[in-house]
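Q: My labmate handed me this sequence with no annotations at all. I'd like to see what the chain might look like in three dimensions before we decide whether it's worth expressing. Could you predict it?
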Amino acid sequence: MRTAKTYAIMLYLFIIMTACHADSPQENIIKVKQSSLENFIYLQGGTFTMGDFGVEKNGRHLRLSLKNNTQPHQVTLTSFSLARYKVTWFDYDTYLLITGKPIQQMVNYGDPMEVQYWDGKRQPYQQTKDGNEQWSANPYYEKNPASVQWQDAKDYCQWLGQQLNLPIDLPTEAQWEYAARSGGYKVLYANAQGDIHNPPTERNFSDDPEVISYATRFVPVGTLSTPNAAGFYDMDNNGWEWVHDWYSQTYSSDAQNITNPQGPESGSLTFKSSRVWGATFDRAAMYPHAFITFRCAVNSEKPVQ
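A: Here is what I predict for the chain of 305 residues:
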């Protein structure tokens, strides 16, 4: 007959064996580096009309947006590479563990313009509660896009660059829009069709507040809708994205006929620019302490090997 002590020993051995089979942060960093290298898409540089490119109708040029922060202007970019997917919580948690940073979670999320901060009540590498990888009520599900503050996003990209020996950073506004438009083509939405005619189930910027919630309704990267013609996923949905630039209301005149614009050297009210799910030229000003998704860019004119 097995005693309580025997069962205790068996349970202990099971826990030890399970722990031994679990991937360590050192093993996971290999996965992050490999997947990152595979996910970078190379874009040949060129000149394009950034902003609201509009349409020609009856001899008149009509804008597609009523916003005054999307004025069209000519921009030239040298070649670069951009990540096919947003950075996931698996990627970001690996970075936190490797660098010894605390595994934190956002609080007071909701309106990204509100003051937000971190606390330390979260476990890394979280899984879904119900096993459904297509939709998780858990915002920290490891395959969901990581939603972090601007400096944290920038630090991650630069850390990844150190691991891969590549000049990696957040993309500039111009790089982000060029990629969303598959190389600067005049397409309105960053999906395979370039329009908004995807089935509603493929999008998360509907009128339903439960669906467009900023931080609690993300889904695994690459599962929500089709990629655009260049192969990028989730550039028209699944959360706003950080870019490198300070926000400028007059960016069209600031960057007119400039090669590789970086945005202003500083920003009023400490706003950083972000790109919004929806039209490829939509943009917004966000406080750097808001929690936003992001992807990384390689600032090299050569393809990533």
